[in-house]
Amino acid sequence: MLTVSHRKRPKLCKQLLKRIMGYLTSRSAAPGVSPLLVFLKDQASSHLVEMIIQLSHKALLRDLYKNHLKGHLVDLALHSIANFPIQRLTAASAKHTMFLKLFDELIQGVEAILAAGHMGVIVQLAESCAESGEKQEDMIQCLLRAFHCAEPGTRHVSCLPLFMSLMTYEVYYHSETAEGNIQTEVPLTSICYHGSRLVQSLAKFKERSLLLSSLRTQTPADLLTLASDPAGSHVLQALITTSSDKGRGKILKRLEVPLQGHYGNIKEKKAATT
């Protein structure tokens, strides 16, 4: 009903959203706790809240955050059900200045959210940074710290395989501690769906030099893996299409030798996944 009214009768939809939200937020809850926090953690009602967030106008979104969710975003992002409405809120806020407040709150819990495996929250946070053009440097630096490749600076070139595999530096390079900077060459073997989506979002940032520098350090074998893997090929396409003409030419030139003689196999793999 909400979806149809949003398309056909937007004024009616606006009234419905306001009244439904008014009803949900008026239910009894613990003193000082918004009842909306309870609904967000419920399997059935959380879907309704997701829909409301997706269709809401700026004023309702601002009220939702300011009066009900402010200070609770990280806890909700860590919840097995509530993290999905938080993803919708992060997406919806990208067009508004309130995104800055959401970002500042969520960024405090990035490592905990990663540990919980709720990668959708992290990917959407990066995507909203790309869409809004805001907080991009903060996002990159936070990810470098979270994947343990911020310090020393020589680890920056490892960021691409770490992001794509969603592994920390120590796990990826089989190092027991975060101390030292000896890097063992490890073949690229793991590219996961959310890791691919994360890098695709980061590729839209204004500053992509870290990703491109990391791409340049990949071995021919790794480049072949990247191009032939379904998730990896989307990363490669994103990095190529968002580069300048000169940068695009450099990437394509580096791919010539690794891909030579393998185009048939790559096409077969892509066909098998469609």
Would you summarize the structure shown here?
By secondary structure, the chain is mostly helical.
Care to describe what's here?
The protein has 274 residues and is mainly α. It is built from 19 helices and no strands. It has a domain at 1-144. Helix content is 68%, strand content 0%. Helix 4 runs parallel beside helix 7 and helix 16 crosses helix 17 (230-241). The mean pLDDT is 88.
Give structural attributes.
274 residues; mainly alpha; 0% strand; elongated
* Structural classification: mainly alpha
- Work out the strand percent: under 5%
| Low-confidence runs of at least 5 consecutive residues | none
Helix content: 55-70%
Largest sheet: none
Assembly type of the chains comes to: single chain
Keywords: Repeat
GO molecular function: RNA binding
InterPro entries: ARM-like, ARM-type_fold, NOP9, Pumilio_RNA-bd_rpt
Pfam families: PUF_NOP9
Secondary structure layout:
Elements: H1 2-8, H2 10-24, H3 36-40, H4 43-55, H5 58-69, H6 73-77, H7 83-93, H8 98-106, H9 110-116, H10 119-132, H11 136-146, H12 159-165, H13 169-172, H14 193-202, H15 209-216, H16 220-228, H17 230-241, H18 245-259, H19 263-273
Helix pairs in contact: 1-2, 4-7, 7-10, 10-14, 12-14, 14-17, 16-17, 16-18
